Amino acid sequence: MADCIDALITANIKTTCESVTIGHGYNTNCGIVAEKRSEFYLDGVSGPYTLIERLPRDVENDYGYSEDSNLKFLIYYFNGKDDTKSGANPIQYEDRNVIADFQKSLMADRSRGGRAQNSHVITGGHDMFYQEGLNGNIYKWCTWLLLQVERMVDADNPYQIA
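RESULT FIELD:
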């Protein structure tokens, strides 16, 4: 059986993020692109890394189907650099074009392959990413953006476009 519309939209976002490279005319190299897992650790990851997290629609029922037509995704970008070293530029300076690069790429096909009415970046910024690690807490600086997708899905059959 084919994937549901939500899974196809997520796959489209991942593929689109993978196109954010200097070779494709952007200022940013996305690095490895992965979906966030419940047990995901950044220990030992070097170089750029992009992480996609689908946000739950309903706090009471995190991943249950609802008739809410909007999907929200947090896209985190870790540049792999350490701005605490002497002479290093601040991460905000190094990543000044990251949000614009991802936004430009994601807005090239707002329909997410014909499965959405619209997509738009709601906001973005810089922040610390925190996770409890196997060997203690992990804190990494990241640039992030929030993408909202107004999907077209049949309320009775999440495998069909409405």
